[in-house]
Amino acid sequence: MMYKFVFCVLLFSLSAINSLHASPYQSVVDNFKHEFEQKLAKSKVPGGALVVVDGDRIIGLNTYGKRRKGGSEKIDKDTVFRLASVSKTFAGALASMLVHEHKLSWQQPINTYIPTFSLQDLQASQSITLGHIVGQSTGLMPNSYDNLINANVKFDKILPKFTELSPICNPGVCYSYQNVAFSFIEQAIEQQSGHSYAELLNQRIFAPLEMNTASIGFDAFNQLDNRAEPHVKTRLGFRKVTVRDNYYQLAPAAGVNASISDLAKWLMANMGQFPAVIPKTIIEDITTPGVRTTKELRRREWRSYLDDAHYGKGWRIYEFEGEALIYHAGWVSGYVAEIAYSPKLKLGMAMLLNGESRVIAELGAEFWHRVFNQHKQNQQLKQS
After folding, report:
1. How confident is the model at residue 122, as a pLDDT?
2. Which of 263, 325, 329, 379 has its CA 20 to 30 A from that of 339?
């Protein structure tokens, strides 16, 4: 009887401890995990993965479907996807590290590192700085020469073509999203660090955060056994396609591969849980609002929630129903990705899909609406 009593007391104590450490958003997360799976099934997306992080804890993780449509291998927490433009969040952090170590400066002209870069107006090109490159405020026509990347034209053939362009505004004045120009930061990082971009990213971010499945580039992705294959949507449903290497040549813009487990660690680091890797000063730097991004306010799935939107340095900064939300999405042939966190709530969420579908945007907007609504309810309960 005594053992039974002690056992019951122990269970009660463990229950009390768990309740003390339970996330106030656990019910929202549990419901969302089910909805994530249901909506992917309804949309017939081949597979996906979801993670939700509260501080330094994973409070929700769900994997769905197959690595390849019609295949037998299921997606798990370590299945690697292409991150597409979520890669920009890594580039922003890495560049900011070098800035804070006085190896780079946001005010340095990009011509310091790419002397051959020029626009029609030479003076205009000399005014574009590293800060403008990472802050998406170069003044160039949006998505300059993405069409050539899509056509698999090599980077060294594209660079001279910038001499044909005139800016649409002065640098630092207007928002103009770039992939090719954003990746100019690679040359600056490599020249000042003495390492390749991939080496430095591994040394400074992947290895210390134990992002063990993360990598850079086409070859690294194709060498993996546990990888999600890409699928595009057609009138007859999702169709598997081959992995293309075109955007991989823009490593800072779209070159990172990672699993949902890796993104959990990346979220934690950006929420301040690993200050030895990503110090507070870096987080503040890359999430300081820069140019306003009014186009984001018209996003179909998000427009009813967004009050304002800016670009930082590799991250988007949203005002979502009055709350700050740090965000980025990514799309590259056959994959979509989304990552976001609330600096106030220390809550983060990421999704990865191996099929092109707008359902990811719908899910993301709905998740954060529920989270911030729950936060308001929690605050009201405290005050009552």
Report:
1. 87
2. 379
CA 186, CA 196: separation in Å to the nearest integer? 8
Q: Say if residue 126 is exposed, middle or buried (CB neighbours under 10 Å; 0-12, 13-18, 19+).
A: middle
Nearest to 23 by CA among 345, 269, 343, 262: 345
Task: With CA atoms as reference, report the closest residue to 125 among 85, 165, 74.
Answer: 165
User: What residues have CB less than 8 Å from 186, skipping those under 6 apart?
Assistant: 91, 197, 251, 252
131: enclosing H helix or E strand: helix 130-134
Q: How many whole angstroms separate alpha carbon 362 and alpha carbon 54?
A: 22
Residue 340, token pair as written in the block: 């976001």
Q: Specify the pLDDT at position 8.
A: 39
Angle between helices 87-100 and 260-270 (to 10 degrees): 40
Q: Which residues of the chain have pLDDT under 50?
A: 1-20
- Predicted confidence at residue 21, as pLDDT, reads 66
**pLDDT of amino acid 380:** 87
Question: How much is the pTM?
Answer: 0.94
Burial of 151 from C-beta contacts in 10 A (0-12 / 13-18 / 19+) = exposed
- Cα–Cα distance, 182 to 191 (Å, whole number): 16
Structure tokens at 264: 């959990």
**Identity of residue 284:** E
For residue 58, give the DSSP letter: E
The whole-angstrom separation of Cα 244 and Cα 253 is: 15
Q: What is the pLDDT of residue 383?
A: 83
**Amino acid symbol at 43:** S
- The percent helix, strand, coil of the chain (3-state, each to 5) is 45, 20, 35
Positive or negative: CA dihedral 62, 67, 70, 71:
negative
How many Cα neighbours within 13 Å face the side chain of 347?
A: 21
What is the model's pLDDT at position 382?
84
Backbone angles phi, psi at 367, to 5 degrees: -60, -50
Nearest to 9 by CA among 33, 114, 190, 17: 17
Question: From CA 179, how far away is CA 158, in angstroms rounded?
Answer: 12
